[in-house]
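Kindly go through the following sequence and its backbone structure tokens. Advise at your convenience whether the structure tokens fit the sequence:

___
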Amino acid sequence: MADNSRPPVTGYPTPPQSAYSNGHPPGAYSNTAYPYAAPRPQYVGYQYYAPDQRATFLRYFLVAMIAFFAIVGTMLLIAWLVLQPRLPEFRAESVTLANFSVSYLSQHVSGDWLVRFQVANPNKKMRISYTDIESYIYYESEPLSVMRLPPFDQGTRNQTVVQASFAAVDSYVDGWAVSGMNAERASGAVIFQVRLIALARFEAGWWPARWRLVRVFCRNLAVALPSNDGTGKLTGGVRDCMVGLL
């Protein structure tokens, strides 16, 4: 007789375990993708960092400074090409010496020097004004006399004659200078050096005036002394002087 107490069986019967080739039901380890989207990862403690304002300012400042110097350099280059500035030219045209004497015993030197300079402004578009002019005369490195010269102006392509008068009356000098001057005098000529320092103003139309320190050095000015009366003149003609700006 049928057992009516058991529930009815529905579906297909479960095959025995031996029916599986590997002991697992089919599809247990299949490569089929998961039908639902994977959940997004959760970022814990995420923070937003704003750019460093100080670093940004420094970058912009550096770029601005580079641009500024580039513009200024370009303007200076253009001005130089337009103006074509040149150094002034100084020449020792003549030197006359009178009442020259050197004492061995007292180490004193006396004399009157008159130096004539040819000063030329070779610039086509630039004027030069000189002021606070000081001139010195030396024997080698030993100073003998100093004097101030009056200011003067020079236009473009201009030449000016400037005179400097030096006087030494029993000026004390070192023993080596006394020996050197007497030895050179015995050979026929004593060699002097002349220096000149001036404050110069360079002007050129719209370009702002600039003040520069001009330094002039006239070396190896040989003054012949053929007689014993202490009178002599420059030998060798006009001498070019070295000129520099500070």
Q: What stands out?
A: Residues 137 and 194 are 5 Å apart (CA to CA). The first strand starts at residue 89 and ends at 102.
